[in-house]
Amino acid sequence: MTGLHDWFQTPPGRYVLDWERARFDTALADVFGYHALQVGLSDIDALAANRMPHRWLALVAPPLPDLDAAPAPQAGARTMLVTDSTSLPFSEGSLDLVVLPHTLELSPDPHATLREVQRVLVHEGRVAIAGLNPASLWGFRQWRARQWRRFGRGRLFLPDAGEFIGPRRLRDWLRLLELELESTAYGCYKPAVRSEGALARFGWMDRAGARWWPIFGAAYFMVAVKRTQGAKLVGQPWKKAPAVVGAPASIANRATPAPVNTEKNLGSH
What we know:
The protein has a 7-stranded mixed β-sheet with strand order 3-2-1-4-5-7-6, with helices on both faces. By secondary structure, the protein is of the alpha/beta class. The protein has 9 helices and 7 strands, in the order ααββββααβααβααβα. The chain is 30% helix and 20% strand. The chain starts with a helix and ends with a helix. It has a single domain, classed as Rossmann fold. The protein is globular and about 50 Å long.
């Protein structure tokens, strides 16, 4: 099993998808705008709870995805297109929301993908990112399995596809691209087991992990806002224009002083 799509059909994969689906629904339900785009991973409808009138699902190529295995788009809710994540077919500053569920992990150039997302987002637009955390029990098991595979032994737990990007590294990328981190969440603290029953037995670890080792969850979820330096607001100005210093003052309406009667004043002497 090497593909991420195949791995999400396993019990651990469904466990991660359920957690991520809840995060997307909670975080994006009140994100308003007109145009939203999900790039990659047709296994989950990350925009299901969002109410923007125009929502698209973009499958990533190359390589071309298995379109027959992908879920059919909902009427009026999702439109499918095939594109390259490093060259999105949208003009600059045209999207209000971009969602990347494990898209950066599978991209041949994840930094270029994130830079392209920054380009198509409007000012104050948002990007939501979901990924697998290499600094977790799952990541440790994956690392150990790769070491054993050098000797012809071991079995990978996570899919052997793409590169897992840690949250700390991703935060640095966001900062460089003027994407201000708004929120971060970690989840999926159960150990790296494969069966449904074993995962159920360790249900208590989700509560304990969120309290005692929160940053070591197997999955993470981030939302960042595009804050472009020097952006100007369009519309009526909030303040009146300041007065020009040194401008001549108008005296047209000032009262003219009464003339002095010099003869009367001299006659009194």
